Amino acid sequence: MSLxxxxxxxxxxxxxxxxxxxxxxxxxxxxxxxxxSKLSDHLQGNIHDFASRQGLLKMIGKRKRLLSYLKVxxxxxxxxxxxxxxxxx
Length: 89
Description:
mainly alpha
């Protein structure tokens, strides 16, 4: 479940740190969160798609590592990102 170009551009514009930013931690976490959301919806209808489930778990792990990195580097940005994306209760 990949994102199309328009969706990617919208996510980049809403989370970028500076004008030419496409790969900061904030942008990467936002893109991973969107892909995780789409894949979760897919897996609810296709419960036997084990390959996609494995990919979902890998994406969740990568997002978790990126968030822990951001928390160590800049805790304020971490909390702002978590609230903005809405991934923690």
